[in-house]
Amino acid sequence: MTVTAVGFDEVTTRYEPVIGLETHVELGTNTKMFCGCATTFGAEPNTQVCPVCLGLPGSLPVVNAAAVEATIRIGLALNCSIATWCRFARKNYFYPDMPKNYQISQYDEPICVDGYLDVDVDGETVRVEIERVHMEEDTGKTLHVGGATGRIHGATHSLVDFNRAGIPLVEIVTKPVTGTGARAPEVARAYVTALRDVIRGLDVSDVRMEQGSMRCDVNTSLNRPGEPWGTRTETKNVNSLRSVERAVRSEMIRQAGLLDSGAKIKQETRHFHEDTGETTPGRSKEEATDYRYFPEPDLVPLAPDVAWVEELKKTLPEPPAERRKRIQQAWGLNDHDWASVVNAGAVELIQSTIDAGTSPEAARKWWMGELARKANETGTELESLPIAPAQVAEVQALVDAGRINDKLARQVLDGVLAGEGTPEEVVAARGLEVVSDTGALGAAVDDAIAANPDVAEKIRSGKVAAAGALVGAVMKATKGQADAKTVRELIIQKLS
């Protein structure tokens, strides 16, 4: 069958998208969900395991109280109702990275239900309703070796690391989001962005999407106006804000092409490819009955005390929307400039840079200028750049001290991004410090005057503004390392 190529703008002239997002968040607890194993990221494979998280015979799980508290706080921050009684269930399925061949999760009795999160999309508030927030344990991690893509197809063998198996995981599931039309991709990204801000503010997870501590399954379907919702696909483990938006857009285009050609959409999981922005088939999507859920026999039900939940509610931080409004006012930004910062995902990066000792103007200049350009060139998120807010603040401190100028600062940023060390180390290694010694600059100034006699004559006749041309010549000759103010003073002094 020939599939019709469809442009994105055409999709919403004939179809209505319905999206839904299932976001998994690894909690930042010291130990796993049902045992005492450590949860340190990046540890040597299979060194943080025990009989419980490996599912060995005779081992029994014990619920992590800190994980329960963190989940309740997430539910409260998302305006959910907290269950007075809930329990765990066994979700039965086999994967190589599931050592027990089942996952302890929650099924029909989750701990948090019926919430919502309001998100801003181009100045308009969109309410995304939350169906449930529930607790479960993470799986291990499979590494496919020997192929070109890192996927199982083409690999010569696979390795399994069970360190991640059993880490506390919270799954946040939205209700179907309708009525967004062509903005569906943007709404999906805005929701995940806002959700990440909420969870980061609660300090219950580092929500590092690039490390997998927050990952998103994106459900997408299309239907013609007035018809029932279409068959959905689930794009699994999308690991960046940009990719969430691209995954929705890609699926809308792909499904519209199939539907226009008379084909049917298969209910399946799909894989998102960062390099092409497209999705490819995974496996047929199971229904709940395929998992054979039943109550977990080794764990008693949970009954959170109402008074305790009310006390937890008092510990919630300032809501992100209110905090952002306060920050916008503190930074003195108009709505347009603020929207640019938010859309770039730069709010927390700029704030952290300010906290490290830099002015709002300087912090925004670097993140929204040079660093945003670098992110765009590499197709990555700003926060994924290998530079910390404290290092950006250090670069600005070098500028403020007169040791480098803005042009040299961009070279320093390049060095840090390239892994050459701290800003101070890059300045020393590359010899980037500004030259302000009048003796060292004198020869370059004399050469510039000799090479530009007409300009020199204008300055002698009182047209001091013409000195800019000679300053530029000296800066070029010194590869930008001359102190412009000192150079200008020397020129006027020599020609006065």
Automatic annotation (TrEMBL):
Where would I find the Asn/Gln amidotransferase domain in this sequence? 348-495
Per UniProt, the keywords (alphabetical) are: ATP-binding, Ligase, Nucleotide-binding, Protein biosynthesis, Transferase
**EC number(s) on record?**
6.3.5.-
Q: Which Pfam families match?
A: GatB_N (PF02934), GatB_Yqey (PF02637)
> In the UniProt record, does the keyword Transferase occur?
yes
Q: Does the keyword Nucleotide-binding apply?
A: yes
Reaction(s) this enzyme catalyzes, per UniProt: L-aspartyl-tRNA(Asn) + L-glutamine + ATP + H2O = L-asparaginyl-tRNA(Asn) + L-glutamate + ADP + phosphate + 2 H(+); L-glutamyl-tRNA(Gln) + L-glutamine + ATP + H2O = L-glutaminyl-tRNA(Gln) + L-glutamate + ADP + phosphate + H(+)
Q: Which GO terms describe its biological process?
A: glutaminyl-tRNAGln biosynthesis via transamidation; translation
Lineage: superkingdom: Bacteria
Q: Which GO terms describe its molecular function?
A: asparaginyl-tRNA synthase (glutamine-hydrolyzing) activity; ATP binding; glutaminyl-tRNA synthase (glutamine-hydrolyzing) activity; transferase activity
Q: Locate the region Disordered.
A: 269-288
| PANTHER family, A to Z | GLUTAMYL-TRNA GLN AMIDOTRANSFERASE SUBUNIT B MITOCHONDRIAL AND PROKARYOTIC PET112-RELATED (PTHR11659), GLUTAMYL-TRNA(GLN) AMIDOTRANSFERASE SUBUNIT B, MITOCHONDRIAL (PTHR11659:SF0)
Query: Main role?
Result: Allows the formation of correctly charged Asn-tRNA(Asn) or Gln-tRNA(Gln) through the transamidation of misacylated Asp-tRNA(Asn) or Glu-tRNA(Gln) in organisms which lack either or both of asparaginyl-tRNA or glutaminyl-tRNA synthetases. The reaction takes place in the presence of glutamine and ATP through an activated phospho-Asp-tRNA(Asn) or phospho-Glu-tRNA(Gln).
HAMAP family recorded:
GatB (MF_00121)
* Stated family: Belongs to the GatB/GatE family. GatB subfamily.
- Assembly and binders: Heterotrimer of A, B and C subunits.
* Protein's UniProt name: Aspartyl/glutamyl-tRNA(Asn/Gln) amidotransferase subunit B
Q: Which organism is it from?
A: Cryptosporangium phraense
